[in-house]
Specification:
It contains 7 helices and 6 strands; from the N terminus they run E-E-H-E-H-E-H-H-E-E-H-H-H. With 201 residues, the chain is α+β, with helices and mostly antiparallel strands. The strands form 3 sheets. Strands 1-2 form a two-stranded antiparallel ribbon. Strands 3-4 form a two-stranded parallel sheet. The longest helix is centred in the middle third of the chain and has 21 residues. Helix 1 runs parallel beside helix 2, helix 3 packs across helix 4 and helix 4 runs antiparallel to helix 7.
C-alpha cells in the first residue's frame, strides 16, 4: 500500500567509478531529501561536484536547489519522459538496494535506523569488494549484438586509478580503511541487520 508515510531509499552513484552511497528518508519531503543527501555525501571520499537527478518532486524543489547553490554543486536533471535516462541508478537500485533490502513496506523510525545501518554496510561491501565490468562498445552484426567490456574492477580500484581524484592523505585513508575490512564479516553483519529489518516490517 502507498497510503500514509513510509520509508524511501536515496541512491547516489558516481558514473565514472561506480562508487555508491545510500541514504534513507521518511516520506518524500524536501527537507528529508536534503538530510538524506547530506548523510550520503559523508560516505563519499571525493568532492561531490554535480548532481543529475531524476524528475521526482523529492529532487526538483527549492530546498535541494538552495543546498546545491550553497555547496557549489552543479544541479541538473534527466530528460522528461525518456525511459531509462538514469541507467546507472536503475542498475544499482536493483543490485545494491532491492537485492539486499527487498520490497517490504518500511515505515517506523526504528526501521529507518536499521535501514540506514544496513545500507552503510551494503555500500561499503559494494564499493570495496564488488567488481564491475563496464561496457566499452556495442557492435551489431546482422541479428547479433557483440558487446565489449573492460576488466572487472571494484569502485575502490577504479577510484585509485583516477589521477587527481584523491589527495595523498585521502588515498592513504581509504587504503587503510580497505585493509581493515573483512568481506565475510561485512556480509554477516548485513544479513543480521536485514533479517532484523524484515522482522520489524
Amino acid at each position: 500500500s502507498t497510503r500514509g508515510e513510509f520509508l524511501y531509499t536515496l541512491n547516489i552513484t558516481d558514473v565514472l567509478t561506480g562508487w555508491v552511497a545510500l541514504g534513507g528518508m521518511k516520506g518524500r519531503g524536501q527537507q528529508g531529501t536534503v538530510r538524506a543527501l547530506q548523510a550520503a555525501r559523508a560516505e563519499v571520499p571525493f568532492p561531490l561536484r554535480g548532481i543529475d537527478s531524476d524528475n521526482d518532486s523529492a529532487f526538483i524543489n527549492a530546498h535541494l536547489l538552495r543546498y546545491c547553490g550553497q555547496h557549489q554543486i552543479t544541479f541538473t536533471r534527466c530528460r522528461p519522459y525518456v525511459k531509462n535516462d538514469q541507467c546507472h541508478i536503475e542498475q544499482k537500485n536493483w543490485t545494491v538496494v532491492r537485492g539486499f533490502i527487498g520490497y517490504k513496506r518500511l515505515e517506523s523510525d526504528a526501521e529507518l535506523a536499521l535501514l540506514e545501518q544496513a545500507q552503510r554496510l551494503i555500500a561499503t561491501y559494494h564499493n570495496f569488494f564488488w567488481p564491475i565490468a563496464r561496457l566499452l562498445s556495442k557492435e551489431r552484426h546482422g541479428a547479433r549484438l557483440r558487446r565489449r567490456y573492460d576488466e572487472a574492477k571494484t569502485p575502490y580500484q577504479r577510484l585509485l586509478a583516477c589521477d587527481g581524484a584523491l589527495s595523498a592523505d585521502q588515498e592513504q585513508s581509504i587504503t587503510t580503511r580497505f585493509r581493515a575490512l573483512n568481506p565475510a564479516e561485512l556480509l554477516r553483519q548485513i544479513t543480521r541487520l536485514v533479517d532484523e529489518l524484515q522482522g520489524l516490517a
